[in-house]
Backbone:
C-alpha cells in the first residue's frame, strides 16, 4: 500500500502545475475563454508539448502509457485552475475509447494527430431519453457496404463543437436498453449528413447537439460488443471528474480560508468568528474524504474486475459530489455577496463543481448503482 | 385555536384569485413559473394593472392608496400572487422607502413621492450597502456635506438591486463623521439623473444582471430631500429593515416552485419510470414539502401574534422565517437540479428574443441559473449566520 | 385563523402546569418511578381530581368533550415534565377507542371507573410481524355464544401491565393485512387464558407482552369494521405524541441554554462560543418548526376527511421526530459528559424523544405515508 | 501509488484471522456483535489468550513484549480484531500509561509495571478529567503535596472509565499551585487500594456503568510513583494524548456493525418486504458505507504519511479521523434504530445471567442502549467542537 508518487509522476505533476501557474491564473483564463473556440489553442499546444495529450496511449501508439494515477494528477491540477480546454473530451473520453476499441490501423491513423494537438475527439453518446443510463442507445447503425450508416440524435456531446473526429455509439441490434448490440463508430465531423449545434455550458465549457442522417462511418472494434468498453471508459471518465472536482474544491477551500483571513467586519477578521472557523473545518473534512475517494477511484478505475471497479468509482462519485456540493455552497456562503459575482473566482469553482455533479451520473444515480451492487463491500 | 379561514377571508381569497387569473399576462406567469427574470416593462405592466384595481400598495395607509386589509388579508393577497405565480410588488418603493416617507417624511415629500411609487412612475433602489461593509452595515463611509441648501455626496454603494432601472435611490449617508458609528448617519433621497452618479453593473454567477455598484462623485442633492432629521437616519433604516417580515419566508413562492417540480418530475423519465417515482427523489421532495408546511404554520403563528400584539417592534421570530425560508428556497432549487439531471449543463443566453430551439426540455435552461442565483438568499438581508446570532442574543439571551 | 387558547383551555393548561410544577420536578419524578408500578398512584389520583382523565369523553359520558387542542395542551405539559403515568395508554388510546367504538351501555359500565381513576385501559394491538402497519392484525376472534373468543399474541402494549381492561384488536375475517375484518374487543386483564409479562421501556415507562388463549371477550362496535376507528385513534395518538415531544424538546432546549449560560470553560461561559450559540439557535428553529406541525396535527386530528387528517398527522410526525432527534442529540452534545449521565435530566428527555420516534410509526414510515398520499398538498 | 497489500501483508492478515477464529470465545464475539458490554473477566480472558500468543501489546518495543510490526501490520491486526469482532486491547495500560512508562519512566517502574500490563495482571484507569474542567483539561485542581517520601493527594477525578475494575490509576495532579496552568502538573501512578480512595459509579443514560468519579482524601502515594520529573506531567500527558491516532476512527468496528446491520435488515420485515429492500433505508445505509470507505482511505493515508514522516508529532489530520469516525459510529447506531423499529422500546436488564425470553428479536434490547451510549464518542477525547477548533487553528491557520 502506497500513496506516494513515483519520480515520473512527480515530474508530470510539477510540469503541469508550472504551466498553469505561469499561464492559467483567473485573468488568463478569462482571456483563454474569450476566443472564438471558447478556449485557447495556444494552451492546447502547450499540452501537446508537455506530452499531456499522449498520456493514456501505449508506447507503441506513441504515448506514455499513463494510468489512473497519471490521469488523476493532471485532472486535479486542471480542476485547481478550472481549465476549459477539451482535454476531458479528447484525451480521457476519446483517447480512452480509441486506445481500447480501435484497431492498430485506426490508431495509427488517428492518434498521431491527437498526440500532436491537431486532432480533437469527442464522444457522441448521450441521447435525449438516456439520462445517465449508459446502455440506453437508440441511434442506429446499419451495414453499408464496407462501412456503416448512422442515424440518430446525440446530445450533450462535450466539446463536440470543436472536435474533428466524433466517436459515436449506435445500436446495431437489441432493444433500447440492451447491454448487447451497441457499437462505436468513428465519424469525421464534416461527414455529409452530420450536423452540429455548439453551445456554451454553465461552467464556461462547450458542448454540442449532433444530428446524424445517413452518415457513413467506420466501426471501432466489435460493432455489437462495445458496452464493456464504454463502461470501462465511463468509469475512467468518472474517476477523472472526481480528481478534477477535488482540485476545484481544494482551490475553492483555499480561496475561502484566504478570504476569512483578510476580510474585515465588525473590526476583526471574519476568520476570528468561531462559526466560520468551524465551517472552514467542516469543508476541510469534506475535502479530505473526497480526496480519499478520488484516489480510490483512480487506483481502481483500471481494475480487471468490472464489478469492483464500478463499485469503487460510483462510490467515489457520490462522495465527491456530496463534498463538492457542500464545499461549493459553503465557499459562496462564507464569501458573502462577493462570492455571487462573476468577477470573483470562487463562484466559478462552485459552478464547475455543480456541473461535474450532473456529468456521467449524479449522486442519486451512483448511489443507486452502489446500492444495487450490494453496498461498498466492507 | 382554529386553522380555517373565515368565510369572509375565503371570499376575499377567491376575489384575489379570480382577479389574478383574469388579468395576469400569460407571458409573465410562464417566465416566473420557470424561474426566469422579468423585464422592467413587465413589472411596470403588472403594477399598473394592480394600481388600476387599487391593489398596488395594499399595506399602506388608505390615505396614500392602501387597502385597509387585515394582516390575514395581506397574507392571502401575497400568497395568491406567489401561487399564480405573479410578480409581488417591487419592494424598494412599496415596502422600503414608502413606509419611511409616510412615517418620517414631511407633507411635501409624501405628496411628491408616494403617488409615483404606487403606480411605479418612479422606480426606486436601495443605497445602503457599501464595499467592505457587508453585514456590518453601520460602518458605511459615503459622505454628505452640507453646502448651502444642498448636500454634496461622495462615496460608493454596492449590491444595489435593479439600480439600472431606477429613477431614484434612497441612501444612508454619513453627515457627522465624528459621531459614533450608528450616529451621524442621515437618510437621503437622490434623483438618479443627478450629475455625478455612475451605475456599474455587477454580473452574478448565474449570468444575470440584478445588482450594481453606484458611484457618487460630488453629487448635489437638494436639502429638501433629507428624510426626517439629520443624523437620525439609522433609526429610519432600522424601521425599514424590521418592516418586512411576513414575506421573508417566501412560502408562497416555494409552494409554487414545488408544484412545478412535481409537474416536471412527472415528465422526465429515468429508464422505465419517471423521476417522480424514484423513491429517493420522492423522499427528499416530501421532506422539503413537510418543512415548508411547517414553515407556513410558523409564519401564520408569527402573523397571528403580530396581529394580536401590534406590529412595529422587530420580532426575532422573523429570523426563524429567514433561516428556514432561505434553506427551503435553496433545497427547492436542488430538487429541480435533480429533476433536470444532465440538462443542467447547457447555458442559453438570458436575453429576451433568443429564438434558437432549446437543448433538452424547454424549461431546462433556467434551472442551473436559478440554483446559482438562489445561493444569495442565505446571504442578503442579514446572512443566516447573522440571523443565528440574533436568535442566540435576542431570544436565547446568550 | 386563530392560535390563541380560549379561557377554558388557558385554565386547563394552568392547572396542569401548576400540578407538575409542585409535584413533578426531576427528583419527584424519580420517586414516582421508584414505586412498584413504576409510576405514582397519587399523581394519577390528582389527574382524576383535575378532570384530566375525563378529557376526551362527551358530557353525556361524564366527560369534558375536549378535542385535539386540549389533548395537545396536556401532553405538551406532560412532555416538559416527562410524566410516566399511563395517561397516553388509558386516556388517549383507551379513552379514544372507548369513546368511538363502545356502545352506550359499555361506556356507562367502563368510563366512570376511568374518569375516577380506578380503571386503567390499554390498547393491545401490535404484533410481532406488524411493525407500524396498523392493518396487520393476525390475532383472531371467533364467535362464542353471545361473546367472542380471542387467540393470538400482542406485543409492546403500552402500560399493558397495569391496565384492568384491555382493548384488543383481532381479525374476524379477511387476509393478514386487509383493511376489513378487524374488530375491537374488551377484555378484563384477569380473564382466564390471558397472560401478561410487564417490563420497563428505555424511557422509564412500562409495557407488556400479552398472550391470548381462548380468552372470552365482548366486541366494541362492529366486529369487522374497526379499522377506521383504529386509524382515527392512531392519528389522535400520533398528534398527542407530537405534542408531548414538543414539550420534551422545549425543556431539553431550555436546560441546554441554561447550561450554556452557567457552565464555565477556558475562563468564560461556554455560551460565549459562537459555534455553541449557533447550535442553540438551530435547535430553536427546529423546535419552532416542530411546534407548528404539532399544532397542525392537533387541529387536524379530528378532521372529518381521513386523507387530509392522516396527511397532516403523518407530516407532523416526520417533522417532530426529525426536530426531536436533532434537539435531543444536540442537547447531549452541548452538555458534554454530564449529559450522558442518569443523574442529570437532559439525557432522559433525549431518551423519551428517541422512543417517541419509534412509537406509532417512525420517520421513514410516515414519510412513506405522506409520499404515497401525494405529498403535503401544498 | 498502489492500494493492494503486499503478499507478506496478506499472509500476516490470514495468520491473524485464523488465530482469532480459532481462539476467540463465541460468547465474547456474540456480545460484541450485538453491541453489548463485556464483563471484566471476559476482557482478561481474551487478553491472556493474546498474551500467550505474544500479541497483547504489539506496538510496544520488543524488549517490553511488543511485536516489531510495521504500522501496516498493526493496522491489519487491529482491523481483524474489529472485524471478528474481538475485544481490542484495553487502552488504559496498553496505549496510555504503558508508552508513558517506557518512554519517561525509570527502570524500576518499567520492570514493575510493564509486564503486569501486558498480561492484564494490573487493570489501569485514567485520572485526567475533573468536574468542571471538561475540554479545558489543564484547569485541573487535584493537589499533591510532598510530605517526606510521599505525596499526599486530595481532590477528585471524574469520567474515569472502568475504574470499578482498576488496580491502578495514572493521575495528573497539581504539584505547584503557583505555576501557570499547564506548568506545575505532575504525573503520578496510584494504587487503587491505597486508603482514602473512593470510587463512586456514574450511571450513564444507556443504563450502563462504564464511568466513575474517583475521590482522593489524603491519599499517600510513594514518591517513587512519580513518572519523570515533577511539574513536567503536562508534557507526558500531551505525549499520551497524541499517541493514539490510527485507532481513533474506529473504522473496523463500524465495518463490523454495518455487516451486522445488513444481516439484521434482511431478517426484519416491513409488510411484504424486508427492511433492507426499503429504498430510503437502503440509500441511507449506502451513504454511510461510502463515507466509511472514504474514512478508511483517509485513515490509510494518515497511516502512510506517518510511516513515511515518523510518528510522535501530533498530526492534526487525526482530528479529521475523530470527527468523521464519531459521526459514522453515531450514524450506524441510528441505522440500527431504523432496523429495530418499535422493538427499540423494551429495556432488558443489562446484567449477565438474565434469562427471561427477549421481547421481539433477541438482538433488539442492545440497540437503543448502544444508540444512547454512542452519543459519547463525539464528546470524549476532545469533543468534535474542539476537533474543529484544532483543524481551524493547526491546519487552516485561522
Residues:
Amino acid at each position: 500500500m502506497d500513496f506516494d508518487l513515483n519520480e515520473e509522476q512527480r515530474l508530470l505533476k510539477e510540469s503541469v502545475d508550472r504551466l498553469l501557474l505561469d499561464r492559467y491564473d483567473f485573468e488568463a483564463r478569462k482571456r483563454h475563454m474569450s476566443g472564438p473556440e471558447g478556449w485557447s489553442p495556444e494552451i492546447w499546444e502547450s499540452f501537446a508539448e508537455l506530452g499531456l495529450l499522449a498520456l493514456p496511449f501505449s508506447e507503441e501508439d506513441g504515448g506514455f502509457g499513463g494510468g489512473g494515477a497519471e490521469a488523476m494528477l493532471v485532472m486535479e491540477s486542471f480542476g485547481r485552475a478550472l481549465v476549459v480546454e477539451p482535454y476531458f473530451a479528447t484525451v480521457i473520453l476519446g483517447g480512452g475509447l480509441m486506445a481500447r476499441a480501435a484497431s492498430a490501423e485506426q490508431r495509427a491513423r488517428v492518434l498521431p494527430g491527437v498526440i500532436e494537438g491537431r486532432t480533437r475527439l469527442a464522444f457522441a453518446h448521450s441521447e435525449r431519453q438516456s439520462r445517465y443510463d449508459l446502455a440506453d442507445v437508440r441511434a442506429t447503425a446499419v451495414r453499408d457496404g464496407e462501412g456503416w450508416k448512422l442515424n440518430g440524435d446525440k446530445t450533450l456531446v462535450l466539446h463536440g463543437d470543436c472536435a474533428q473526429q466524433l466517436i459515436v455509439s449506435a445500436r446495431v441490434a437489441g432493444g433500447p436498453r440492451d447491454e448487447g448490440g451497441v457499437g462505436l463508430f468513428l465519424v469525421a465531423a464534416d461527414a455529409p449528413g452530420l450536423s452540429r449545434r455548439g453551445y456554451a455550458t454553465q461552467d464556461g465549457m462547450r458542448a454540442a447537439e449532433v444530428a446524424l442522417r445517413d452518415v457513413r462511418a467506420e466501426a471501432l472494434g466489435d460493432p455489437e460488443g462495445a458496452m464493456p468498453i464504454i463502461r470501462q471508459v465511463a468509469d475512467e471518465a468518472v474517476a477523472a471528474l472526481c480528481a478534477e472536482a477535488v482540485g476545484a474544491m481544494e482551490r475553492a477551500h483555499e480561496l475561502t480560508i484566504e478570504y476569512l483571513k483578510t476580510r474585515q467586519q465588525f473590526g476583526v477578521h471574519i476568520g476570528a468568528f468561531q462559526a466560520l472557523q468551524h465551517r472552514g473545518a467542516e469543508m476541510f473534512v469534506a475535502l479530505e474524504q473526497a480526496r480519499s475517494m478520488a484516489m480510490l477511484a483512480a487506483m481502481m478505475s483500471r481494475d480487471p474486475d468490472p464489478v469492483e471497479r464500478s463499485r469503487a468509482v460510483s462510490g467515489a462519485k457520490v462522495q465527491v459530489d456530496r463534498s463538492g456540493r457542500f464545499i461549493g455552497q459553503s465557499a459562496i456562503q462564507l464569501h458573502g455577496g462577493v462570492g455571487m459575482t462573476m468577477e470573483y473566482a470562487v463562484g466559478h469553482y462552485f459552478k464547475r463543481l455543480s456541473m461535474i455533479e450532473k456529468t456521467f451520473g449524479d449522486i442519486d444515480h451512483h448511489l443507486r448503482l452502489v446500492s444495487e451492487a450490494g453496498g461498498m463491500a466492507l | 385555536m382554529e386553522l380555517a379561514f373565515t368565510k369572509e377571508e375565503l371570499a376575499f381569497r377567491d376575489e384575489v384569485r379570480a382577479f389574478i387569473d383574469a388579468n395576469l399576462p400569460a407571458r409573465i406567469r410562464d417566465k416566473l413559473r420557470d424561474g426566469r427574470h422579468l423585464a422592467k416593462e413587465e413589472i411596470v405592466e403588472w403594477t399598473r394593472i394592480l394600481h388600476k384595481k387599487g391593489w398596488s400598495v395594499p399595506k399602506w395607509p388608505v390615505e396614500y392608496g392602501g387597502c385597509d386589509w387585515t394582516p390575514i388579508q395581506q397574507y392571502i393577497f401575497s400568497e395568491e400572487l406567489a401561487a399564480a405565480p405573479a410578480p409581488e410588488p417591487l419592494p424598494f418603493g412599496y415596502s422600503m422607502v414608502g413606509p419611511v416617507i409616510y412615517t418620517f417624511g414631511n407633507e411635501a415629500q409624501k405628496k411628491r413621492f408616494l403617488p409615483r411609487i404606487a403606480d411605479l412612475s418612479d422606480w426606486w433602489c436601495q443605497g445602503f450597502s457599501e464595499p467592505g461593509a457587508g453585514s456590518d452595515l453601520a460602518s458605511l463611509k459615503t459622505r454628505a456635506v452640507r453646502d448651502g441648501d444642498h448636500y454634496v455626496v461622495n462615496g460608493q454603494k454596492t449590491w444595489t438591486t435593479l439600480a439600472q432601472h431606477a429613477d431614484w435611490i434612497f441612501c444612508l449617508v454619513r453627515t457627522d463623521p465624528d459621531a459614533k458609528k450608528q450616529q451621524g448617519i442621515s437618510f437621503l433621497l437622490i434623483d438618479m439623473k443627478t450629475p455625478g452618479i455612475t451605475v456599474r453593473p455587477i454580473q452574478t454567477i448565474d449570468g444575470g444582471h440584478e445588482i450594481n455598484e453606484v458611484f457618487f462623485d460630488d453629487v448635489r442633492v437638494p436639502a429638501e430631500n433629507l428624510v426626517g432629521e439629520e443624523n437620525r437616519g439609522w433609526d429610519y433604516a432600522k424601521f425599514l429593515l424590521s418592516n418586512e417580515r411576513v414575506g421573508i419566508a417566501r412560502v408562497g413562492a416555494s409552494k409554487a416552485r414545488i408544484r412545478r417540480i412535481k409537474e416536471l418530475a412527472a415528465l422526465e423519465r429515468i429508464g422505465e419510470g419517471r423521476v417522480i417515482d424514484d423513491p429517493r427523489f420522492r423522499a427528499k421532495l416530501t421532506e422539503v414539502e413537510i418543512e415548508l408546511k411547517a414553515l407556513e404554520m410558523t409564519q401564520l403563528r408569527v402573523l397571528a401574534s403580530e396581529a394580536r400584539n401590534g406590529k412595529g417592534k422587530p420580532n426575532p421570530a422573523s429570523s426563524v422565517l429567514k433561516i428556514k425560508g432561505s434553506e427551503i428556497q435553496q433545497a427547492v432549487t436542488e430538487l429541480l437540479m435533480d429533476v433536470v439531471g444532465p440538462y443542467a449543463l447547457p447555458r442559453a443566453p438570458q436575453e429576451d428574443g433568443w429564438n434558437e430551439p432549446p437543448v433538452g426540455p424547454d424549461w431546462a435552461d433556467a434551472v442551473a441559473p436559478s440554483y446559482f442565483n438562489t445561493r444569495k438568499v442565505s446571504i442578503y438581508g442579514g446572512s443566516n449566520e447573522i440571523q443565528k446570532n440574533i436568535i442566540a442574543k435576542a431570544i436565547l439571551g446568550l
Notes: Chain D touches chain B through three residues (CB under 8 Å). The mean pLDDT of chain D is 92. The radius of gyration of chain D is 22 Å.
